[in-house]
Design brief:
Helix content: over 70%
Radius of gyration: 62 Å
CATH architecture of the largest domain: Up-down Bundle
Oligomer: single chain
Shape: rod-shaped
CATH topology of the largest domain: Four Helix Bundle (Hemerythrin (Met), subunit A)
Number of helices: 8
Number of strands: 4
Number of domains: 3
Order of helices and strands: HHHHHEEHHHEE
CATH class of the largest domain: Mainly Alpha
Structural class: alpha+beta
């Protein structure tokens, strides 16, 4: 199975970290929404407690305006009695829409009953008041004492029930807030654990990916350093099949080829040194005169002791001369043509010529011609 490449390892690691971060973020958002929803009920409780407080107030004020009207006979108070009853019912409707707790709804149901009773007794007293005023011109409080006491008792009951409802809602609100705080603490603790786990996983993923890249790279760097110091026998052992593994294989192939070429070159140089050594020995010990001539200039480069003896000139003087300067006049042109023939050729080539001995006789000669642009060429074995 092929090992995942470095590129895909980095992509997978990055995507994994992104997914983990998204999961942590989603959990934080969800938990935050739950806490916000819990605390948003605070306004709900406030509307209930405010309506309960207003219910208590409107019940007492409705009773007060009715008693003022029966006593002082001001029509304004009669109108305000009806207005306070209407406001009382509005506050009861507000609580009816918002209360969900069973105990609180039981208290609200009792308040509704008492509110209806308050309206009935109030209207009864107003009817009795109108009848008395039409018949006698006065209102008999003594005859309506029981109704008046019932009105006061109902108003007081509504106020107490509204107070009990307020207390109940305050307790519920405190309970919800405590629950929300506990939930918030749980969310904070869980988020801390998730962030810690995310950090540990992120560090772990980063270490795994970096180790899978750094270790092979370190081995490759060490191998390159050894090759730089001349050790071509180093082999990188990288088991992965990713880009670094391919680079290591290419490096091993390169060092193997360099080593093979270096060994081949060393063998060639050793053979050349052996050949030159053999040539030098034969060159100096040969019984025939031998000279090396530069094809480009025609200058004598070197000669053996026998050539010095036959020409009667030392090698130092011969190295200052052109080869055709030693040739008889009739051979000089042929010698130059031979040199022109071998110009640009690689290697050492023999040529037949002649030189004039000190006694005036012409001596046939074989010279070896080498272009000065090619160095370290071997003298052919058939020079003798």
């Amino acid at each position: 199975m092929k090992t995942t490449s470095i590129r895909w390892r980095l992509i997978i690691g990055t995507v994994s970290l992104a997914v983990l971060a998204c999961l942590v973020g989603l959990y934080a958002i969800r938990s935050n929404r739950q806490v916000v929803d819990t605390f948003s009920t605070e306004a709900h409780f406030q509307s209930i407690t405010t309506a309960a407080s207003e219910t208590s107030s409107y019940a007492k004020r409705a009773e007060g305006h009715l008693m003022l009207y029966l006593t002082l006979r001001d029509p304004t108070d009669r109108g305000k009695f009806s207005q306070r009853l209407t406001s009382l019912n509005e506050q009861i409707d507000i609580m009816d829409k918002n209360i969900g707790d069973p105990d609180a709804r039981a208290l609200l149901s009792a308040i509704k009953t008492q509110s209806d009773s308050l309206r009935m007794i109030g209207m009864s007293l107003l009817a009795s008041y109108d009848k008395s005023m039409n018949e006698t011109g006065t209102f008999d409080f003594k005859a309506n004492e029981n109704a008046i006491r019932q009105l006061d008792a109902i108003a007081s009951t509504i106020r107490q029930q509204a107070l009990d409802l307020t207390t109940r809602e305050i307790d519920l609100e405190a309970s919800v807030i405590d629950s929300a705080v506990a939930q918030l603490n749980l969310v904070n603790r869980n988020l801390l654990l998730l962030v810690s786990a995310f950090f540990v996983l992120a560090v772990g993923i980063a270490l795994v990916i970096s180790a899978s890249i750094w270790r092979p790279v370190a081995r490759l760097r060490e191998a390159v350093s050894k090759v730089g110091r001349g050790d071509l026998g180093v082999v990188i052992k990288v088991q992965t099949k990713d880009e670094i593994g391919e680079l290591a294989d290419a490096f091993n192939d390169m060092t193997g080829q360099l080593k093979a070429r270096l060994e081949e070159r060393n063998r060639a140089e050793e053979e050349l040194r052996s050949s030159e050594a053999r040539f030098r020995i034969i060159f100096k010990e040969a019984h025939d005169g031998i000279s090396l001539v530069d094809a480009e200039t025609g200058r004598i480069v070197d000669c053996n002791p026998e050539y010095e003896r036959q020409t009667g000139m030392p090698v130092s003087e011969l190295r200052t001369m052109k080869v055709w300067e030693l040739s008889p006049t009739e051979s000089s042109e042929h010698t130059q043509q031979s040199l022109d023939t071998y110009k640009g050729r690689e290697g050492v080539s023999p040529a037949e010529t002649a030189y004039q001995k000190p006694d005036g006789h012409n001596q046939p000669d074989r010279i070896y011609i080498q272009d000065s642009r090619y160095q370290r060429q071997e003298i052919p074995a058939d020079f003798d």
